[in-house]
Every structure is written in C-alpha cells, then in structure tokens.
Design brief:
alpha/beta, Rossmann fold, 23% strand, globular, transcription, CheY-like_superfamily, transcription regulation, Sig_transdc_resp-reg_receiver
Length: 97
Amino acid sequence: MRSVFEPDRPMTLRTIVVIEDDPMLRQDTTDMLEAAGLSVVGFEDGDQALDYLRHHRQDVSGVFTDVKLATETDGFEVAHLVTATRRLTTSATIDKT
C-alpha cells in the first residue's frame, strides 16, 4: 500500500494530527501542542484520521497517535501507513481507581 505522504517533500511546520480515543487525553494533548504554537487536528479513531490524511496530506507535518485504539484501525496501522512522515506513537493506561 502506498504511503499517504510524499517522502521527498520538504518538512515545514504545518498541522499535527492527534489520534486518541480518550476524549480527555485527546484534548490535553491538543492543548499542549497548540500552546507550543502548532496547529492540531484531533480524531478519536484511526479510520477518521486516515480519511483526513488522504485528503489533506500536504498540510500535515506529523502524526501523534495512541497505539491502542478502540477501533479496527489502531495506532500501529496508522503508523505503518504514514511512515514517510515524522511520527510519535504513544500508549497510556489510566488507573481510574
């Protein structure tokens, strides 16, 4: 499968895609990145993010994704499809006790 990014395109500061199924973590991550001066687009699952990336790849500088997502397309799959961009994959577990 072809990557949704063009590997030879020069990297400039554009948009960071955040993929996190926990709404609170997604908002906190978005807030921190925006506070650092970045433009952020957040998604709750990999399918939504991949659809966005297919249509806006020229606007995206990187992808910040949770590894464990509640949908079929998890963070590993997203990372595999966007290997031509700089990315950071994360996973977190919150103890709610």
